[in-house]
């Protein structure tokens, strides 16, 4: 009878340990399933499951290696920690569409006033699942017995096995990119190394690895200490002096503003035939005729978003994608400053919040929401219609949010349709050409012809935008700040660029930039400018007080404007001279940009 009892205890112990492993795995799978809308790592992806099973096996091994009471203590400590984190993730994600990060604890005081209402208003199914997991854990706890004495050797062996399995889990991610590349945000190893996006972190690493690594990155990973020399350099460039005023200060004060970032809208594409609405708009605008959207291998579209929103650009002297800087302090950003004035600030685009980690970045920059068409439309029967720029205006949700009455608004709209590949056989090129010629009647079109069709779709959207402003009685009280994200370097047939760009040096980055208001007298500004200058120029026009030294960009309309632009290879242009030789002014500006971003300098001076 005693032998039967001992045998039963062993069977129950094994059952309890296996059950605990499966319980931990179930909690992780459930959490990742909650985030299924996140376009990164599916449930059956090897890496998160490998990490989760590695940690679950390690916890089970540890519990099985310890003496009875200590075994139970470790069991409950492990479960309660991750059970509470499961609930925290579930509640936070259900209300914000972001998983919890320990980084948020640094801002705990900001959310303390509404934390109770947040907990109460969370979906009931989260608490139901939490209760179910707790009941299962209680049942399993009765099965787990632990050993009669601790076994240090077995515990050490468990650590060794864990390290091997953990190393193998890391290897399932591949090597990632060692160079600056636009696609690093979708490379698992790059995401893991940087670990700045909570949503991707949970989907990639699973609950247990994510928790440990997120805690390490937030609190334990050594911060790169700024040298005395670098700190002295930055201090010499930062002061509290306000921006100078000029004849344009406050010209648009109190008006609504729409930032219109135009995908691939090169100079030669903005013309009366292909883009009549944009052409007319620019003819009635403050037109910056010598503007440049500098190219960067780290993602030129997002670099433009980053530059216009923060007044800084992708680092030039070290490899860092700016979409990984979402924990940096950007309290002087476009959205934050307008929000402080009572503006409603929202961003609108086709692509998902995970692409370039836009969701977390726009939140960090101060936007109320980042709206995307994919989440709304991709499960419909409309195929690739969400890639049509017209949907930015025609979609009911977008339209309602863009043109709300009441408080003034800032809308940041990013177009998409003029996007590679420029072909009639696939993607958006096939869609727009079929719309024009009809199914089965599409002729053999060149890349240039497809591009012209695609920019016409963007122009159609602009026409809809102007009409919507009129329909909502906003036409005379709204300013449009329009600019291209980059020149059309994405076209494969470079002879097209040779035909229209007339240069092979960095001035090929020349792109349109203009500011429109119905009551503005048409005028041209011929000073050289770049993306980082759009923010301070706009702030001055709207009478927004700002500190001049807090940006590397400047107000182009001011008499003290620096009057030159620089490029990623450190070349520069002042409107007359183009030079690839070193310039102290350029090098100091680049150094200010790179050191500010590298050391998150605003976290210490604000």
Structure explained in plain terms:
The protein is of the alpha/beta class and 606 residues long. The chain folds into 2 domains: 2-220, no CATH class; 246-605, Alkaline Phosphatase, subunit A. The chain is built from 23 helices and 11 strands. The protein has helices at 2-34, 46-65, 68-96, 108-111, 115-121, 124-143, 152-171, 188-194, 198-220, 228-237, 276-283, 300-310, 334-339, 358-365, 373-377, 391-394, 396-402, 427-437, 447-471, 494-501, 534-541, 584-598, 602-605; strands at residues 256-262, 286-292, 344-349, 369-372, 409-414, 478-484, 513-516, 523-530, 565-566, 572-573, 578-579. It has an 8-stranded mixed sheet with strand order 4-3-5-1-6-7-2-8, with helices on both faces. The chain has a 3-stranded antiparallel sheet with strand order 9-10-11, with no helix packed on it. Strand 9 and strand 10 (572-573) form a beta hairpin. The protein is elongated and about 95 Å long. It starts with a helix and ends with a helix. Mean pLDDT is 92; it is low at 109-114.
Protein traits:
606 residues, alpha/beta, Alkaline Phosphatase, subunit A, 2 domains, elongated
Number of strands: 11
Order of strands in the sheet with most strands: 4-3-5-1-6-7-2-8
Helix- and strand-based class? alpha/beta
User: What count of domains describes the coordinates?
Assistant: 2
| Tally of individual helices | 23
CATH architecture of the largest domain: 3-Layer(aba) Sandwich
Radius of gyration: 28 Å
**Percent helix:** 40-55%
Average pLDDT: 92
What's the story with the biggest beta sheet? 8 strands, mixed
- The CATH topology of the largest domain is Alkaline Phosphatase, subunit A
Q: Could you tell me the strand content as a percent range?
A: 5-15%
Poorly predicted segments: 109-114
Report the CATH C-level class of the largest domain.
Alpha Beta
| CA distance, first residue to last residue | 74 Å
């Amino acid at each position: 009878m005693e032998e039967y009892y001992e045998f039963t205890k062993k069977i129950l112990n094994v059952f309890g340990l296996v059950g605990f492993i499966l319980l931990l795995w179930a909690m992780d799978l459930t959490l990742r399933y909650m985030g299924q809308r996140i376009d990164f790592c599916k449930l059956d992806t090897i890496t998160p499951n490998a990490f989760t099973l590695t940690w679950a096996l390690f916890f089970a091994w540890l519990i099985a290696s310890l003496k009875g009471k200590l075994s139970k203590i470790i069991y409950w400590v492990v479960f309660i920690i991750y059970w509470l984190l499961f609930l925290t993730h579930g509640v936070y994600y259900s209300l914000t569409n972001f998983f919890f990060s320990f980084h948020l604890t640094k801002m705990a005081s900001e959310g303390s006033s509404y934390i109770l209402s947040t907990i109460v208003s969370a979906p009931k199914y989260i608490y139901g699942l939490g209760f179910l997991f707790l009941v299962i854990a209680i049942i399993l706890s009765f099965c787990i017995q632990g050993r009669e004495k601790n076994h240090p050797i077995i515990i050490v062996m468990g650590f060794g096995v864990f390290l091997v399995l953990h190393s193998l889990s890391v290897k399932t991610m591949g090597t990632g990119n060692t160079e600056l590349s636009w696609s690093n945000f979708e490379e698992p190893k790059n995401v893991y190394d940087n670990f700045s996006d909570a949503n991707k972190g949970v989907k990639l690493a699973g609950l247990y690895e994510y928790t440990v690594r997120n805690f390490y990155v937030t609190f334990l990973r050594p911060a790169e200490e700024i040298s005395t020399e670098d700190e002295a350099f930055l201090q010499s460039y930062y002061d509290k002096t306000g921006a100078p005023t000029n004849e344009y200060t406050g010209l648009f004060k109190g008006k609504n503003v729409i930032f219109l970032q135009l995908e691939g809208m090169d100079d030669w594409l903005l013309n009366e035939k292909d883009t009549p609405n944009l052409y007319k708009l620019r003819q009635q605008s403050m037109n910056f005729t010598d503007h440049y959207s500098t190219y960067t291998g780290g993602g030129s579209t997002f670099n433009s978003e980053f530059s216009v929103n923060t007044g800084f650009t992708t680092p030039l002297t070290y490899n860092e994608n700016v979409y990984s800087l979402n924990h940096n302090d950007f309290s002087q950003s476009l959205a934050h400053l307008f929000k402080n004035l009572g503006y409603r600030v929202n961003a609108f685009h086709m692509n998902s919040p995970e692409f370039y980690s836009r969701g977390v970045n726009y939140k960090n920059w101060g936007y109320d929401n980042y709206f995307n068409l994919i989440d709304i439309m991709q499960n419909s029967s409309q195929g690739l219609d969400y890639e049509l720029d017209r949907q930015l205006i025609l979609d009911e949700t977008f339209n309602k949010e863009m043109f709300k009455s009441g408080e003034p608004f800032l809308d940041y709209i990013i177009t998409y349709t003029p996007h590679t590949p420029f072909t009639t056989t696939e993607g958006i090129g096939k869609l727009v050409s079929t719309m024009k010629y009809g199914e089965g009647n599409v002729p053999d079109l060149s890349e240039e012809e497809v591009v012209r069709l695609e920019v016409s779709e963007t122009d159609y959207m602009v026409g809809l935008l102007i009409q919507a402003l009129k329909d909502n009685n906003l036409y005379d009280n709204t300013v449009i700040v329009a600019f291209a994200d980059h020149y059309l370097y994405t076209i494969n047939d470079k002879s097209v660029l040779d035909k229209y760009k007339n240069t092979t040096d960095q001035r090929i980055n020349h792109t349109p930039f203009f500011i429109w208001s119905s009551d503005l007298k048409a005028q041209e500004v011929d000073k050289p400018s770049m993306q980082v200058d759009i923010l301070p120029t706009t702030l001055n026009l709207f009478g927004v007080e700002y500190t001049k030294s807090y940006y590397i960009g400047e107000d182009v309309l001011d008499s003290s404007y620096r009057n030159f632009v620089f490029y990623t290879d450190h070349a520069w242009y002042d409107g007359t001279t183009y030079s690839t030789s070193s310039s102290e002014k350029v090098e100091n500006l680049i150094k200010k940009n790179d050191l500010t971003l590298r050391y998150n300098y605003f976290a210490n001076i604000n």
